[in-house]
Amino acid sequence: MRDGNAKRSVLRALKRNPDFGGLASLPSLGSKQGGRLLQWLDQSGLALGLLKCVNDHAAAVCLCNEWRDVLEARKKRNAARLQDMLEEFQRLNDAFRSRGIMAVTLKGFSLVPDFCEDPSLRHQTDFDFLVRPGDVDAAAAVLGSCGYSTAQLSYSGESCFTTPLHHVPSRADDIYAIQHHRQVDLHVSLTESSPWFQLEFSQLATQAAVPMSVAGISFDGLSLETRFLVQVLHAFRHSFRSWIRLSWLMEIGHCMELHHDGSDLWARLVERAGDSLPIKRIFTFILSLTHRLFESRVPPAIGNWAAETMTPSLRAWLDRFSEDWALADWPGSLSNLFLASDFIAGAMLRREYLLSRLIPKRERLTIEVPAGDQPERPIAWQIQRWRYVVHRTGVHLGDLIRLPLERWRWQRALGSARAGFDQVQS
Questions:
Q1: What is the DSSP secondary structure assignment for residue 53, as one 8-state letter?
Q2: Are residues 204 and 162 in the same domain?
Q3: Which of 237, 247, 291, 360 has its CA 20 to 30 A from that of 330?
Q4: What's the domain count of the chain?
Q5: 104 and 181 co-located in one domain
């Protein structure tokens, strides 16, 4: 079974109306194709979700024992990782409370249970907290007392804090292992900054926080409609970098299914999101992609609110390119460059964006997030870094070579979509 066929077999098993027929033909884990598929499952975040789906439909699924065993082993390791992260999560929340700082959890554990019913099925890498701009210094001091540091503290955007790195990172690292070092992202806004487009929302207010808990740990979170908004914007931001973790879309789809008939919820979301064209088009893109990949039903209130922003180019890309783009191995595919004009209004900004994707900056090729006080890295770390750079460069060059053919396909698809769109309009 070719890589693309195997990935599509996994996707069909994870749809709202699952089809498990292809799972019996997954390549052997001892083969090159099997190893690549397993790596894609890990990087996409779908491995543990696939295991749950297999276990929930045991009578209907034919999956060989080697695949069951390797997924079960991942679940076991992730359970230990989860417990370790929960303990750190409680330590951080307790530290913020002891200093009187309201730090609201974004993403992560706040997604349970509305986006993911079981935290052991999520692979989480860091912690995200939202604070008021006036609390940034105090929050940074708290994180410093907990062993975190940052290379640059921001009062208007995101600040990345990490613990000292005592392990030489590698592409071969086990992502389900207990963390060698930790990361906290400190935010002052619901939206993450981008040089290509700006999305403005009101600052965090005390009354915006709602009490939440996970595994007996209490913390401050956001209302469900705001969490949904944040997840959609988060997924879109990463998609514009070329790649998206498919588990994020699966979780968005789970929330839509779980609360599909909650008309009050979706009315509050529409009110919270506002009426701007960019926001509506982002929702059109992310929710349409989620529906195509997982058959998740889009609640009518959101679909009607955003429907007018569908364009011929967006329709053409969703019809002809979206699945291949979504199934691409990390670090992703360049085919979503064709959507730049749908989301970036200015010609100069579009040019800068395209150049940033075609000629990535040095920081896009790093193997770790830089900390505040970097010691001189050992030779072993330098070797792993250059291996990582060579790998990413090779993948990127392959994408550049394929881009002219993809552009030719795009022009054909766009012409057909425009012709169909004009017929509907007339």
A1: H
A2: yes
A3: 291
A4: 2
A5: yes
Phi, psi (deg, nearest 5) at residue 105:
-75, 125
Report the alpha-carbon distance of residue 289 to residue 336 in Å, rounded.
12
CA 213/CA 230 separation, integer angstroms:
19
127 belongs to a structural domain = yes
> For residue 245, is it within any domain?
no
Its pTM stands at 0.92
Question: 174 and 138, same structural domain?
Answer: yes
Q: Which residues contact 64 (CB under 8 A, 6 or more apart)?
A: 24, 26
**Alpha carbons within 13 A on the beta-carbon side of 385:** 16
How far apart, in whole angstroms, are the C-alpha atoms of residue 282 and residue 121? Answer: 27
Q: Do 5 and 86 fall into the same domain? A: no
Q: Is residue 125 part of a domain?
A: yes
Please say whether the beta carbons of 201 and 241 come within 8 A.
Answer: no
Residue at token pair 């790195």: 165
- Whether 221 contacts 104, CB under 8 Å: yes
DSSP string, 243-264: ---HHHHHHHHHHHHHTTT-HH
- Is there a single domain that holds both residue 95 and residue 158? yes
User: How far is Cα 2 from Cα 377, in angstroms, rounded to an integer?
Assistant: 40
Q: Which two tokens stand for residue 339?
A: 């959507």
For 271-302, the pLDDT digits (tens) are 999 999 999 999 999 999 999 999 999 999 99
- In this predicted structure, the answer to whether residue 393 has a pLDDT above a threshold of 90 is no
Range(s) of the domain holding residue 127: 80-222
Q: Tell whether 44 and 86 lie within a shared domain.
A: no
90 found inside a domain: yes
What are the backbone dihedrals phi and psi of residue 100, each rounded to the nearest 5 degrees, phi first? 70, 25
